[in-house]
Amino acid sequence: MPLTATQIKAYRVVAACCIGNLASGFPVNSFGNILPYVVSYLREEHASSVRSSSVSFVPIMCTVILSVTMFTGGILEFLLGYTVSLAGVGIAFVASLLLNYVALHNFGAMVFIYCILGYCEGVLLVTFLSTAMEWFPKQRGLAAGVSALGSGFSGFIFSSIQSSFVNPWNYKPNHAPFEAYPDEKYFSQPDLLHRVPLSFIIIAAISGILLSCAIALVSRPTEEEKKCLAETSQRLLDNGTGNGGKSYTSEGSSLPEVEYTATQMLRSPHFWIFFIVFGLSRCNFIFMNSLSKVFGESFITDDHFLTITGAISGIMNGLGRLAWGSLSDLLGMQRTMMLQTGILSFLMFTFYSSKYGGPVMYFVWVCAIIFTSAASFSLLPAAATTFFGYKNNKLKIGLLYVSQGSGALLQGFMMLGWHIVLGWRGVIYMFGFCSLLAFLFSSILHFVLQRVDTERITVLSKFHNRQPYES
Q: Does the CA dihedral 149-150-154-156 come out positive or negative?
């Protein structure tokens, strides 16, 4: 069956959402790669007391701001309109990247700029995610995964560009300022350090071009287009290519869809289980994204190898979002979360062994952990709309996304001096314990709360005076 004009537009919009998230994913997804360069630049030029562990809180702060302010995207859209608000935030994002050229001369200014970047990335992310799911209401996990794919690939794209420009000579960290910690090394080569601020101008130019293309192509579906998409979905179901005409929640059980208010959502035990699981999973992602290279430098001296590892893990980050989002459409949200957190627990508890397994094991484990922990980027928005309804979707996604900020704060606390007391082994085991807790809470969601789903939705359907949804 040939594609209709509306279907073609739907695919175009989702592709644009992917490009938009690619352009705006730099602050959180690529900071781990440039962290050694930035810290080395700050130490040599302006602040000799700065250490990698102290600067690693910058992506944590970005994540916190991103998660707690994400819902404001809906307010901006209400005040300014969809396109104008999106373009305004995009301009602010690119301008902030450019200002990093100057901000790197002052540590406080750099932190402030990254606060702005975190806010802009959050608004852009929730807008692109919610837009993609509006065009594919029957395949929200897949749509969210494709949209978030761009944000994951940003680590690969920008990390490669950064390292190729800043360190084309494959210099090794050669300065160990602390006798008690000989593995903590920094770059001191002047030609490398000179290029660090310039790299942000290149990143800003690329992000600006990609964001301009994305904003020009995205739009909300009109009522007529929504009707056309619904009719197309019905034809697919009638032809036996859908799910049998039924609406599913998390486990494939046929349940009518209802809309939660924000208050009902916050009172639901499902919300808090999701909140805990996604928050704990986020701890591992931020740790790997910001400090896996620093850990690798403690026993691997080839900077290009570490950069390639970071770049490939960026690809796995994007593929993980797509794969886990698609898997949730097949297995259901709860089973997918149990599988994801179980695998992540095993990988984190064995990650320290890569110090003895060598560079190959390190490469495989970094890629596998990033692939697995990236699941929350597609599972979270799908869970918010699947369990709690699509009305006011930005608010619901934003409320659940606060879990990512909580996870970032927990990760920051776990790195606040603990790496000095416990060493890398102890810290990595702490993050493995977080994954294990996430698995246990996912099990509670699946085995304990699943049996109340039918009662929950039936009661809410009566409360809202709605008939059960039927395709």
A: positive
Q: How many whole angstroms separate alpha carbon 166 and alpha carbon 284?
A: 27
C-alpha–C-alpha distance, residues 213 and 191, integer Å: 34
Quick: pLDDT tens for 34-52.
888 988 898 887 667 777 7
Task: Look up residue 186 and give its DSSP letter.
Answer: B
pLDDT in tens, 61-101: 887 888 877 778 778 888 889 999 999 999 999 999 999 99
The rounded distance, in Å, linking the Cα atoms of 274 and 272 is: 5
Q: Is the dihedral of CA 256, 259, 263, 265 positive or negative?
A: positive
Q: Name the nearest CA neighbour of 158 among 307, 267, 56, 38.
A: 307
> What residue ranges in 180-231 does DSSP mark as E strands?
none
User: In 3-state terms, what secondary structure has residue 48?
Assistant: coil
Per-residue pLDDT, 338: 92
Distance of CA 150 to the CA centre of its chain: 10
DSSP at 255: -
Say if pTM beats, i.e. exceeds, 0.90.
no
CB 204 within 8 A of CB 162: no
- All residue ranges of the chain with pLDDT < 50 are 237, 240-256, 451-471
Determine contact, residues 415/287, Cβ cutoff 8 Å: yes
Closest by CA position to 24, among listed 166, 197, 165, 214: 214
